[in-house]
Design brief:
CATH topology of the largest domain: Rossmann fold
Structural class: alpha/beta
Shape: globular
Helix content: 25-40%
Strand order of the largest sheet: 7-6-5-12-13-16-14-15
Largest sheet: 8 strands, mixed
Oligomer: single chain
CATH class of the largest domain: Alpha Beta
Distance between the termini: 14 Å
CATH architecture of the largest domain: 3-Layer(aba) Sandwich
CATH superfamily of the largest domain: Vaccinia Virus protein VP39
Mean pLDDT: 81
Number of strands: 16
Number of domains: 2
Strand content: 15-25%
Low-confidence stretches: 348-356
């Protein structure tokens, strides 16, 4: 948060400001009338003798980092709902979900027109990529509460013509029936049921969804998946896209059961068979791990499963994977190198700046 004079403030755009003053009323009038600062953008008016780094940090944390109803992602304010855990995770882990703008940037170097966001939640990854890509978005979210917030956040973006939203489960088993089972915070997963009820969510495959929109497989730049343990299902639901297209693939590799473990192993084999030869792994805190092949992916998954036994320390509970075909390998390598170069910047906190 830079410290600047009122003269400079008049000529720049900003979301919020904190103001230190000697006398209250006259300066308040100047800020609101002369500088034309909207009152809602002023988080704090404090006397200079009260001005200190702890005060700034507390105000910033409370109003920006901790405000789930107007949380800012890449300069875009979205409503996360009441109990979303993204703000606390990003406060604790500076690089959590920070790779998405870079993924968006990669799509500008591809020839397609669309990003598929499966498990879009309330639109947080949409916001993270929004200003970094020229593609249109197809966002899919089955949970009613998340989907309603997603629609509201799409409206806040302004250019709603770039986004198509659908409430559905994505699966390769479209004949089965599922309902939502909510977890803690912003998590949820699907639960198979045997009878049709009002709680059943429509099922679609990735391939079927793309075809229903009249989109060619080669026009999809990115398939992003985050479905709390069911990402392998979604990979199998995209067989034609993987075979006939050239989309980047980014998924959350989260395993709770042995059945899911086996599904992921089968999904790796499918990807290799469809010429996805390069895999780039990140731990769930956003730290880049390594470039991998199928066997290394299985080894990392085995490592994570062993941490669940409680016999060893739990370093990370799942990992994220970026996969591409050979023609995009260099693009992925270059963007990851750029991303990794930002680590020292994210390490700097307000407290560290104050010590300098």
């Amino acid at each position: 948060m830079p410290i600047i004079s009122p003269k400079i403030l008049k000529n720049i755009s900003f979301e919020y400001c904190l103001i230190a003053i000697n006398g209250y009323q006259a300066v308040v009038e100047q800020c609101l009338k002369v500088l034309k600062i909207p009152e809602k953008k002023i988080l704090l008016l404090a006397h200079v003798f009260e001005w200190n780094i702890d005060l700034i940090k507390n105000i910033f944390d409370e109003n920006i980092l901790g405000n789930t109803r107007n949380y800012h992602i890449e300069g875009i304010g979205i409503d996360l709902g009441e109990d979303h855990n993204l703000p606390s995770l990003q406060r604790m882990y500076k690089m959590y979900d920070k790779f998405f703008p870079y993924i968006g940037e990669m799509t500008r170097k591809k020839n397609g027109k669309y990003i598929l966001d499966i498990g879009a939640n309330v639109g947080d990854t949409l916001a993270a990529m929004w200003n970094h890509t020229d593609d249109d978005f197809i966002v899919i979210e089955p949970v009613r509460e998340f989907f309603e917030l997603l629609l509201q956040n799409v409206e806040r973006l302004g250019n709603t013509g770039r986004v198509y939203a659908e409430r559905a489960f994505i699966t390769d088993k479209t004949e089965e029936l599922y309902q939502v089972k909510r977890g803690k915070g912003a998590t949820a997963h699907k639960e198979r049921i045997n009878i049709n009820t009002d709680e059943v969510i429509p099922n679609q495959s990735v391939d079927g969804l793309i075809k229903s929109k009249g989109i060619a497989f080669e026009d999809v730049d990115l398939l992003k998946i985050d479905t709390d343990g069911f990402d392998a299902d979604c990979i199998f639901a995209a067989k034609e896209l993987l075979r006939d297209g050239n989309a980047l693939l980014y998924w959350e590799n989260y395993v709770e059961t042995f059945a899911q473990y086996q599904q992921y192993k089968d999904a790796y084999a499918l990807l290799v068979n469809e010429n996805y030869t390069s895999f780039f792994c990140f731990d769930n805190w956003g730290n880049y791990l390594c470039k991998a092949d199928k066997e290394i992916l299985i080894s990392i998954m085995d490592y994570v499963r062993r941490t669940y036994t409680g016999c060893i320390g739990n370093t990370f509970g799942y990992f994220d994977v970026l996969a591409c075909k050979s023609e995009d390998r260099e693009l992925c390598e270059n963007i990851i190198q750029k991303y990794a170069g930002q680590y020292p910047l994210w390490r700097i906190t307000v407290d560290e700046v104050a010590k300098r």
